[in-house]
Design brief:
Rossmann fold; five-stranded parallel beta sheet; globular; about 280 residues
Length: about 280
Amino acid sequence: MEKKSEVDNNLIESLREKARRIRLGIIDALGIGNRGHLGGSMSCADVVAGLYFYKMRHSPDKRTDPNRDRFIMSKGHSVLTQYAALAEAGYFEKAVLSTTKSLGSILQGHPEHTTPGIEANTGSLGQGLSVGVGMALAGKVDARDYRVYVIVGDGELAEGQIWEAAIAANHYALDNLTVIIDTNGIQAMGKTRDRYDIHNISGRFAAFGWKTFEIDGHDIADVVTALDAASVIKERPSVIIARTIKGKGVSFAENTHNYHNNLLTVEEREKAVASIMSM
């Protein structure tokens, strides 16, 4: 798989800036003194930027368009990334991000389909891929040409329902389905391999009949190239194993489980913003 050529430098730089804004939006959504999932939200920011601002067909003015592409954040605790992307794309005002997890807010701690731009409720790990399979199958039955994208956490792969969905996706030849595995190697209590080691993720999906790609999940050129390659696969689903860094962009939160679900002080927020701006 060759990366996007040099002629796409403007696109790559634009998406890097979108990813930066998404990361700043995550900080706004987290706020001061509020517990939230910083680490896993930051690790998938570059992939989400590639999806919302390059690959997916969507519009805040056509939220019910039957031909829109669908996105499911299966690891629902990382929804801050999606909220920031939706605000950046105009689904709601950016000022709403600061109300996240407040009583009565449209933005809660896990995705809810009542939020503009959210396709399905997730949060109970392992279920989002099944939802995505259902949406992709519906697209086939209805002869629609939309695509379905699902982000799954690597720790989430311990859930058996993921593999049931993987079997079904291959059985029904869902070539309109692409899954991205946010492979940051760290979950709530420590390293994923020490809790439930899945070992060869790519090989396991390949054994289930999926087309697999492995990328650097923070290299925008890698991200868009893989998304393009996945979109032309026929007769089977595709999976992108994105190697990422937990907390990417916030120096003191990188490669640690301490900010899987934690709060920021005023000083930490300032450091986080400065770290993101220096990326």
